[in-house]
Amino acid sequence: MAACGLDFGTSNTTLGIGAGDRPVLVPLEGTHRTLPSAIFFAPGREAQIGRAAIEAYVEGTPGRLMRALKSVLGSALIEETTPVGRERIRFRDVIARYLTLVKARGEAEAGVDLDTVVHGRPVHFVDNDPAGDRKAEDTLRQIAESIGFRHVRFQYEPIAAALEYERMVTSEEIALIADIGGGTSDFSIVRLSPERHRRDERADDILANDGIRIGGTDFDRNLSLGAVMPLLGLGSPMKRADLSVPNAYFHDLATWSSINRLYNSKTLREIDEVVRDAARPELVTRLRTVVEAERGHSLAMAVEGAKIAASDAGTGTVDLEWVESGLAAAVDRGRLAGHTEDLARRMAQRIDRCLAQAGLSADRIDALFLTGGSTGLPHVRAALTACVPTARVVDGDTFGSVGLGLTLEAARLAA
């Protein structure tokens, strides 16, 4: 039995193999261990994934880019079809095509056929909907089986991160694991030690587990709606008194998984009508430019880049020169926090719920282990650390901790 750990994330994917206590994430694109969760369909060509998919789109190759694929799990979209060239395919089949290529690359690196997978999953695919949550896991299981995995197991992503962190601990401690990914934020409180790490059954060591469907793409969305979409007409008035420009177009354009909905002639005709009736038609004309050129993903990537720049360096810019000469949106840390502080607050509330679930006070937490890209946002980090102010803060492998933990569990299954 050849087993792997597969962290299919909203933003990035990793695949790991290994034996015993030595997990390894294999390169999935050149020397890169992480693969952007993106797929590009070009007419008459095989689908491209990862950075190559994004590059093909940015270079203007005719075709269809899809990102944040995982976010449709648990939603009605999973069974819907989307146009790809001259055919329409279901979103679940898009995910299957992406994961088929990921599996093939992992097998090429490992030199063996992989028949067993430990799949990572968020604590909740869907908030407050147990039936939807079960459906999402069942769908992902069916996809995994359809692409050749005979044995499929699931592990909560924060628990997987805890297994990876536990390799570093030298004595028993209680750790709060915070995994802030692209689509979800997941938290676990776990009792860890070198001795416990060798046990196969760890249910008694999991003291609390919770999560919320908020992640990095939601920060992108809120920042886009707050700082960029007003430049394209969001919130601007119509000629008719007391009416504003319809906001559905802007919400779709700001949401990674919904961007492609706009790319059809019907939407363009509707936007033309809005331009005609808008009090400031020049703003809505910019929206039309983006939609007609099918550059929504370019806009989303620019927003994501400005978010990262503002987080790391204090300031960032969304360059919209290609929409209109001289057009840009400036973003700094204050503006980023202002547009997304509610998301950080809601994440922190889940930590309070975990503490209550575990029956622990905040000062009983020895370590706060952080993983996932959005833990780098200063106001998110501040919100999380404020919940357990006496805990030691440990930064994990930002994009690899979950995958490494899943690989540890896969190695145990294969032993």
TrEMBL record:
<dbReference type="Pfam" id="PF00012">
    <property type="entry name" value="HSP70"/>
</dbReference>
<protein>
    <submittedName>
        <fullName>Chaperone protein DnaK</fullName>
    </submittedName>
</protein>
<comment type="similarity">
    <text>Belongs to the heat shock protein 70 family.</text>
</comment>
<dbReference type="InterPro" id="IPR043129">
    <property type="entry name" value="ATPase_NBD"/>
</dbReference>
<dbReference type="InterPro" id="IPR018181">
    <property type="entry name" value="Heat_shock_70_CS"/>
</dbReference>
<dbReference type="InterPro" id="IPR013126">
    <property type="entry name" value="Hsp_70_fam"/>
</dbReference>
<keyword id="KW-0067">ATP-binding</keyword>
<dbReference type="InterPro" id="IPR042054">
    <property type="entry name" value="YegD-like"/>
</dbReference>
<keyword id="KW-0547">Nucleotide-binding</keyword>
